[in-house]
Amino acid sequence: MASEVCLVLNRKSANRPVVEEAVKHVQSRGIELRVRIPWDFEDSARVIEEALADGAERIIAGGGDGTVNGVANLLVGDGETRPRVVMGILPLGTANDFAHGCDLPCDNLKKCLLIACTAPAREIDVGCMNGRYFVNVASGGFGAEITATTPVGMKKALGGGAYTIMGLAKALTLKPYEGRLLVPGEEPAEGNMVFMAVGNNRLAGGGFEVAPKASLDDGMLDLAVVSDGPAADVGRLLDEMKTPENPENRFLHYRQLSEFTIESDKDLHINLDGEPILERKLEFSVLPKHLGVVF
Questions:
Q1: Same domain, yes or no: 67 and 149
Q2: Total structural domains in the chain?
């Protein structure tokens, strides 16, 4: 059963009526769309390999940011050669930060799936952290703790607002991380932070613009670091967010880099495209315009 377009659907979303309606909508337009529902990430690898063997030219990630990350990693592989297939997105997660950052109409799944099946692909950069690839954002510290500790029931009930509520609850207990930034050709920069984001795209944590200058095809990753102390001067932090690259900023520090390393003196919570990770040393790099994505 050969098909040029394959929808790899997150099993948790397979029985949603709106998903079935979206699939029937595009199929009614004569589009040969094959739907596959893997059991887990390991099974996703098998499903994608079979789809490629059948001649698929588009693999659509049907799920949230974690599903998009998983499909992107499987397509990129070892990163040595550019994938011959392109990736589409059917946003079915809680936050759908990558899809929102790509300006996809996430409230209209029929339109999103039609775009994924028919629109031309754009070449985007792929970020790499400790050998694992990401297309959206790697966030650390405060933001990652919010994502990792927000109860599943609250996410389902409140959507992106759940992250805000948990953030407010944790704001008074923040303890900064101590560490250093290592950039090739520069002296190590020592400091502390309560939040950091490395953005290939702009949004994370339920729609927050954590990397406002990020572009998907500039060959750079945007590093945003909020240092200890902004709770005492929220107004200034908000002002600094309007001019993130201002060298006079006290709390928000923002740089665009193609390669760098962050070292933390204690375990650092990281959220990599929706997936929680715990590390002390983070090595970042970028594969310029390496993956075709439809949006």
A1: no
A2: 2
Q: Is residue 169 pLDDT above 50, yes or no? A: no
pLDDT at 148: 56
Going through the chain in order, the beta strands assigned E by DSSP cover 5-9, 33-36, 58-63, 86-91, 121-129, 132-134, 137-141, 177-182, 189-193, 195-199, 203-204, 208-209, 221-226, 252-257, 259-272, 275-294
Q: Which of 126, 142, 167 is the last residue of a domain?
A: 126
Tokens, residue 54: 């059948």
Structural domain ending residue among the three candidates 106, 126, 146: 126
Q: Which two tokens stand for residue 2?
A: 């050969």
Structure confidence by residue, pLDDT tens digits, 229-266: 655 577 788 788 888 889 899 889 999 999 999 999 99
CA dist list (Å): 189 to 46, 130, 138, 182, 282 = 44, 20, 20, 7, 15
Q: Both 195 and 222 in a single domain?
A: yes
- Catalytic one among 20, 275, 279, 283? 275
Helix (H) or strand (E) holding 22: helix 17-27
* pTM score over 0.85: yes
Asked if 275 is an active-site residue, the reply is yes
Q: What is the pLDDT of residue 156?
A: 54
> In this structure, are 87 and 152 located in the same domain?
no
Take residue 46 and report the two structure tokens written for it. Answer: 């098998």
Q: Residue 269 in contact with residue 148, Cβ under 8 Å?
A: yes
